[in-house]
Known about the structure:
Chain A is α/β, with parallel strands linked by helices.
Amino acid sequence: MIKKTVANVEEALEGVEDNMTLMLGGFGLCGIPENSIAELVKRNVQNLTCISNNAGVDDFGLGLLLKQKQIKKMIASYVGENAEFERQMLSGEMEVELTPQGTLAAKCQAAQQGYPAIYTPAGYGTEVALNKETRMFDGKMYVMEHAYKADFAFIKAWKGDEAGNLIFNGTARNFNPIMCGAAKITVVEVEELVKPGKLDPNQIHIPGIFVQRIFQGKDYEKRIEQLTVREA
Amino acid sequence: MIKKTVANVEEALEGVEDNMTLMLGGFGLCGIPENSIAELVKRNVQNLTCISNNAGVDDFGLGLLLKQKQIKKMIASYVGENAEFERQMLSGEMEVELTPQGTLAAKCQAAQQGYPAIYTPAGYGTEVALNKETRMFDGKMYVMEHAYKADFAFIKAWKGDEAGNLIFNGTARNFNPIMCGAAKITVVEVEELVKPGKLDPNQIHIPGIFVQRIFQGKDYEKRIEQLTVREA
Amino acid sequence: MLDKNGIAQRIAKEVKDGYYVNLGIGIPTLVANYVRDDIQVEFQSENGILGMGPFPIKGEEDPDLINAGKQTITALPGASFFDSAMSFGMIRGQHVDLTILGAMEVAQNGDIASWKIPGKLVKGMGGAMDLVGSAKNIIVAMTHMNKYGDSKLLKRCNLPLTGVQCVKTIVTDMAVLKVTEEGFKLMERAPGVSVEEIKKATEGTLIVEGDIPEMKL
Amino acid sequence: MLDKNGIAQRIAKEVKDGYYVNLGIGIPTLVANYVRDDIQVEFQSENGILGMGPFPIKGEEDPDLINAGKQTITALPGASFFDSAMSFGMIRGQHVDLTILGAMEVAQNGDIASWKIPGKLVKGMGGAMDLVGSAKNIIVAMTHMNKYGDSKLLKRCNLPLTGVQCVKTIVTDMAVLKVTEEGFKLMERAPGVSVEEIKKATEGTLIVEGDIPEMKL
Lengths: 232, 232, 217, 217
């Protein structure tokens, strides 16, 4: 077994520097690496390129990095619900690259799996496909999209073991598994870190080979963005 | 919930005809759809193209179809350990297309996931890449491989529910999950068929959307090809 | 004229037994309320769930269980969770039978614009481009005209496209229309809406053949 | 001259702390027996396991738990199972640090032939083409000469290739060699084997610089 545990979030983020490209798991505020984001804020690294499906809200998630103007470029599929983001985008302080959600997922997974590029029909005939190679297969047009390259990936899992094996919970899975191993260094925070052998090898969502560092996270807020309930 | 259960293997194989292309899960004799193979033998459908990592042994697995000369063309990565196979291949009775194992897996998964083609470095510069498009990405050469098309996929899972959700066991997983949904009709046999809600939704390996028919298999032999043990 | 619920109710009739359905944000979300309960249907949400159930009872919400609109949801028996690549694999691989989504504009060739108004705020396309680029069957749910009274059924879209030649059916507050090679084919009128009114509200070519029945809800 | 176990033993020294290793069939399988137990290593088998353990004790074999050679195996604590696409994703994505496999021929430019003898029976390449096409570090384990006494270290391969310019290191019963731009660079001699003997047994260009030490096992 190859041990991937680090003592804490400070050690987990060792080597994160200005101008790096980061991938961050999560969909909306669901399944975001809260501890790593807090540490990125604390370190105040600058000029980051962030690849994440969303950009958080004003006072949570990636919104915390935006507030400190740490993000130079944001690659995301949906950036609504964030006034500061809007301001920085419209003023030109921040560059924004909008990518269809499935394409974003595919580009991360391609990086993980060693595919240099993939073909997707998403965005064909739209401005997303501008200056991109397109190609017909079986009478249908596809856009070629290249795998992402990133320096660090910050992942939130539910349970993990010391070997880096991960299990995610519910829809907090989202982009987290497919960003593992898609960056040079994958840092995972978990709600529950267990000894090897405690997780069923048949039920691992992501094997530890895709993980370089894992630590026990703490103080999870797990904020709900749109609390919606029905009558009992 | 959309119910996918069929009464038995006869109903599960309804519509299988001569000249069809079939995908069959399994690696060696591990995780092969024993019940479906037996039914294919019984139906004696002819001129089949079979996509499967291996071709079984003389008296088990796909070897049973070979014995009846039901296979016109075999697409596989490894066909050793089968004398009848050898005979039919050398005599030209059967066409054989050898494909690297990872490429085989990728072509199945591409069909499942709606990717028309993928790029892999496997086989570049070898006879496997003859007459195939090649391309450089980041200084490395890749071969373009198209997704497979099949009429039926025959899958063996460990547990499944009536909605078609599947869980595989150990290394019997292999090609089974990635062939689900890679054919027009995916037929799954399981060792244990349970009611919806009995499987943890967090632990499903393949969601039922990729499955058209599921049934409770029986009389599994689960033959071991290379029994290898150590001293206690 | 139908209200939002009326549009959802009409669209629900297009949901057939055995369908996997992806519902977009807004009116499409309401469709789930009107699907017949004697047929088998599963709802997919592209953030990673199949077998999505109703909103939770207060106090039972789970921050790890949301839909693509970030709303708290529940999972029905037979549900499954998966990652975003697998989720869009289902969509791209055409395993999802029906996609229902909103739009700002639809062109008579099936083009759809739904994600961006230049010069105004851009929120992003989310999964819409993947959905319209892949789905076998796409129904657009929208009002026939925008708030300025301009038609949203056009010869050509003015706004940046979400996808090309993909919309099959449009259900508005005024009508049900099919996209055909010749233009929008009027299939049904909303209760109390005349063919003339629909013609006036449709900028694109409207094809009216024979008597146009009133919708049955 | 080393026997099979000797080759495996020498290769085991190339396995470093923190390595994920894929072992081919034959001699490579034996490498696991010689890896130091004070370092952390995990073995991957491409049919779908990471954290592969030793063969089972008799009676504890599980037909659902085999390696790529179809042998019954065990899983160590911290192991995981996965499908074949994920398995080759690990390989293609260069997450596996070291691949050790057998060969029929290696050329001095790093080409390898290991899967086919034209005119004879073809068993198939299995995962070998994926492994050699992707791995960062490839060690070939083989005898220096074939059973007819012909060199297997060649200027150019005669047999159909498994992969091009990919082999980094070769450990034979006679020597350890590195593939360099100029040819096979002799690094170590097997105990009792002279540089002259290695020269004679090597058809490709052999580079001998300075004193060539004897292997330490």
